[in-house]
Amino acid sequence: MEYQTYFERRLPAMLDLLTKLVMLESPSDNKRLVDRVVEFAADEASKRGAAIIHFPMQDVGDLALAKWNAEAPGKPILFLCHLDTVHPAGTLAGRPARLEDGRFYGAGALDMKAGAMLALEVISGLHERGELPPRPIWLLLTSDEEIGSLASEPVIEQVAREAGLVLTMEPAAPGEALKLARKGVGTYRIDIEGKAAHAGNEPEKGLNAIIEFAQQALRLNALNDLKRGTSVSVTQVTGGTASNVIPAHVTAMVDVRALTAQALSELHDAVMSAAPFIPGCHVKVTALHRRPPMEYNAQMQRDFAQVKAIGERLGITVRGESVGGGSDGSITAALGIPTLDGLGADGEGMHAVHENVLISSLPRRAALLAGILRDWVMD
Ligand SMILES: [Zn+2]
Questions:
Q1: 136 alpha carbon to ligand 1 midpoint, in Å?
Q2: Secondary structure (DSSP) of 311-361
Q3: Which pLDDT tens digit goes with each residue over 109-163?
Q4: What is the CATH code for 3-182+293-375?
């Protein structure tokens, strides 16, 4: 039986597992809850024949690595799935998971519990058919992607370095497109220190941190180059203490995005090199977090061509797109490891209350993944 037909028949089992994963709410900042869903998914992997390695974490949820065919020759194909979500605990009490109009609604369903479900169900399906390919297949379950993967990143790097292909199970771009390029992201905090003074009696004795900030903000804004895919956005600002006081402090946040590592590094230098406009004011820029871009380079073009060819043999047209947000796939792609991203479900409303999975996309996604596991030729 063809993969697509086969996975259409398995839909009830797929939706059942997705429901269980979604019911275990897992906001990134709640270690106990994220631990619980990672443990559940690791148990499901274990039931499907995997050996499990645990990575205990201090502040975020523990990570788990499931391995199938560990003794088989060749580099593993690695599924990369985060199980944390942006939705606070209790979201489901107000908005229970439900099926409606061919969609599965539920907090975190699309981003990306459906991705974890697909990985597990594809492996189950191939196992049941006696077609699990004789190559190592790994599934890494991570716990803090939605807050920047700071704790997971070293583990992701360590595990991915051994892999020959990384399948990032993030939601698809609209129309079941893969995500072939992701912008790199930099986050910065700007602290400006001026000098407070009475706005009525002696304003000349103050150094107005807000006026300094306004000029800094315009300088940053001028770095925008949207045609090159580069954006610099001042996104948050707080400052001042009272309406009659020359403000002494401003703190602001800046979000920087670029398509290439080169452009991101140039922007980094430009943002960091802030000199005060008002003599006597102090401007301090702190780089908080950086996620590299996933570049549409020669490696990505080769890998996309291969997945398209696999899709064609299964009667599936595979499209690709470029997106603005980062993912853990950006980390592995930046290491030079072949990475395909956006292999999860299609749907709508990532991070929003109406987040949902388009159910009809699931058998096609599962079929494509099964084809990749069976047919992928490593470089
Ligand atoms: Zn995600």
A1: 24
A2: HHHTT----EEEESS--HHHHHHHTT--EEE--S--EE-TTSTT-EEETTH
A3: 999 999 999 999 999 999 999 999 999 999 999 999 999 899 999 999 999 999 9
A4: 3.40.630.10
CATH of 184-291, one of 3.30.450.20, 3.30.70.360, 3.40.47.10, 3.40.190.10: 3.30.70.360
pLDDT band of 1, cuts 50, 70, 90: confident
pLDDT tens-place string over residues 181-238: 999 999 999 999 999 999 999 999 999 999 999 999 999 999 999 999 999 999 999 9
Residue 7 Cα to ligand 1 midpoint, Å, equals: 24
Ligand 1 centre and the CA of 146: distance in Å? 7
Cα(217) to centroid of ligand 1, in Å? 30
For ligand 1, the distance from its centroid to the CA atom of residue 359, given in whole angstroms, is 18
Q: pTM here?
A: 0.89
Q: List strands edge to edge, sheet with 63-68.
A: 51-55, 63-68, 137-142, 77-82, 165-168, 339-341, 178-182, 320-323
Map tokens 């401003």 to a residue.
Answer: 250
- Domain parsing of the chain, residue ranges: 3-182+293-375, 184-291
